[in-house]
């Protein structure tokens, strides 16, 4: 038997379900953004390598905390947090650029979209 982990915040069940759905969509976007940022951290090249490498690391560390907070909030509301790569890819609104490693400026532009 699974323990109910809902935190009572005075929100009705139908509203909770909608909130969990919204949080899971946000979770998918945040996780894809985290992965994309980490990928750019690994693959950035050029004259600004050192600074951008550090910048991308700072960003993915912040995103890691956000991902954790969003997933935990969905659980506190009594829902399940999506957690597979397939779910993240299917539900994210962020476009991937498979097999492409753009220049540093394009990496930054891609993350801002």
Could you walk me through the main structural features you see in this protein, from its secondary elements to its overall organization?
66% of the residues lie in helices and 0% in strands. The protein is an all-alpha fold. The protein has one domain (13-112): Ferritin, CATH 1.20.1260.10. The termini are far apart. 20% of the residues are buried. The model has no long low-confidence stretch (mean pLDDT 92).
Topology summary:
Elements: H1 13-43, H2 49-76, H3 85-91, H4 104-112
| CATH topology tier name | Ferritin
The top-level CATH class is: Mainly Alpha
Determine the structural class based on helices, strands and strand pairing.
Answer: mainly alpha
Q: Quick one: how many beta strands?
A: 0
Give the low-confidence spans.
none
Alpha carbon gyration radius:
17 Å
Number of helices, counting only DSSP H or I runs of 4 residues or more: 4
Distance between the termini: 43 Å
**Biggest sheet, in brief?**
none
Strand content bin: under 5%
CATH-level-2 architecture? Up-down Bundle
- SSE series: HHHH
Helix content: 55-70%
- Nearest-integer average pLDDT: 92
| The CATH homologous superfamily | Ferritin, core subunit, four-helix bundle
Number of domains: 1
Shape: elongated
